[in-house]
Write a structure and sequence with these properties.
This protein is mostly helical. It has 18 helices and 2 strands.
């Protein structure tokens, strides 16, 4: 085993840093991912109008499963895992299809689709080199852009106060919009800082200040937190499980795209960590990472959580800290598991007013769309690519903007294609594979 430290790193992949350095690096990674892990369950719970206890439990299980998933990726159990300092957490990419599945079949349908759909990603890991010819960067860019554009509606709804505010007739009030604008402005302000720590903490700072301001405005009442026990014990299938074909197809498509994104993240992580990015050893690492991506998502469904994916932002953290040791990943995993076991963590964040969360997620979703546009822009936009982009966006955004267009179709078909991500993604794959143009 080569234990040499690559240039630019303080600690290489197999190094064991001193405890102080390990804890510092682990806390930095935790700071970068914590909000991203808890935000999807909060958005989903808000859209499904779940009660405080259920919302808090979902947040806790997201943290718990992310800890287990991170350990599997870093440790590599047999063929499962990439063996890098690779952090996993709940994925934003699945929010749209999950909300659609939850509105139709509740939490059991969501967890059933999470479990069944994960098989797609696990299969991709076994035939990775062939799938790359079908799911090209152009297709991935289109789907990522559609994910961001589709979720902006969710973000702006939260900024206005959410569905509860619509029912109460207070949606879009100056208090709600002003609070969301404050959070958004704070995040942008600190994100522009030349200080690395302030920039990395910008979302956390914005949410904390927004939370405090909302409490001062009387929008948060901590006495609403009841006593649900001292520990959140993970209980498999606590809310049941059911399998709906349309939900499985919708999530399955996103799993397909997530596999390709995971491949890119593992490539970047390997490069930063001084590991090979081609050859048999790399392909084994990439296949194991994608297999773990799917396997961990299946575990998430079993333990009442949502699909997991590799977090790209942690690659930047490795560069910033100079620590690529996967040993640090064990500490990150332990911290996440511990946070997930204590109900008060999930319950406190479950009380966060929607406008506070909306101010942050609106920017997050816009960033997702921007990332997709960057992927598209990195490709050669010839006549074929232009047609693929045009058709995919036309179909994907059509069902988002005018969902009534599907009203006369059979219910199963309607449920499958009601998501712009699914519709646009399917069209991107089909048109990219079928359209043939001989360039002049």
């Amino acid at each position: 085993m080569n234990n040499e430290t690559p240039k630019g790193l303080i600690y290489g992949l197999e190094a064991r840093p001193p405890l102080r350095d390990t804890l510092f690096a682990a806390l930095q990674h935790l700071l970068a991912i914590f909000v991203a892990i808890i935000t999807p369950p909060l958005i989903i719970a808000g859209a499904l109008k779940l009660d405080l206890e259920t919302t808090g439990f979902l947040v806790s299980m997201s943290l718990f499963v992310s800890g287990v998933a991170t350990f599997v990726q870093c440790r590599r159990l047999g063929p499962v895992g990439c063996g890098l300092l690779c952090v996993q957490g709940t994925s934003f990419s699945f929010i749209g299809p999950i909300i659609a599945a939850g509105l139709a079949g509740g939490l059991p349908a969501i967890f059933g689709a999470t479990i069944a759909g994960s098989v797609v990603e696990m299969l991709v890991s076994r035939v990775l080199k062939y799938m790359r010819r079908i799911i090209t960067p152009l297709v991935s860019g289109i789907v990522v852009t559609l994910i961001g554009l589709s979720l902006i509606k969710v973000g702006i709804t939260a900024c206005g106060g959410g569905e509860a505010a619509k029912a109460a007739g207070t949606f879009g009030s100056i208090e709600y919009v002003g609070l969301a604008a404050l959070v958004l402005a704070l995040i942008i302000f600190f994100n522009r800082s030349s200080n690395h720590y302030l920039r990395m903490s910008s979302i956390v700072i914005g949410l904390v200040i927004g939370y405090v301001v909302s409490w001062a405005m009387g929008m948060v009442n901590f006495s609403d937190i009841p006593d649900f026990g001292n520990l959140n014990i993970p209980i498999p299938f606590k809310y049941g499980v059911s399998f709906d074909l349309s939900a499985i197809v919708s999530l399955g498509l996103v799993y397909l795209i997530t596999a390709i994104e995971a491949y890119g993240d593992i490539t970047a992580n390997s490069l930063i960590s001084g590991q090979p990015v081609e050859g048999e050893k790399f392909m084994k690492r990439a296949s194991g990472g994608i297999l773990a991506d799917g396997f961990n998502s299946m575990l998430a469904g079993i333990f009442n959580s949502f699909p997991n994916s590799i977090f790209a932002q942690n690659n930047g953290m490795i560069q910033l800290t100079g620590v690529a040791s996967r040993y640090v990943g064990y500490f990150i995993a332990g911290m996440l598991v511990l946070l997930g076991l204590f109900p008060v963590v999930g319950l406190i964040f479950s009380l966060m007013p929607e406008p506070v969360l909306g101010g942050a997620t609106l920017l997050m979703f816009g960033t997702v769309a921007a990332a997709g546009i960057r992927i598209i822009a990195s490709q050669d936009i010839n006549r074929k690519a232009t047609l693929v982009i045009a058709i995919s966006f036309s179909f994907g955004l059509s069902v988002e903007l005018v969902p009534e267009i599907l009203s006369q179709l059979p219910e199963t078909v309607r449920n499958i294609f009601s998501s712009g991500i699914t519709t646009g993604g399917v069209m991107a794959i089909l048109t990219n594979a079928l359209i043939q143009i001989k360039e002049d």
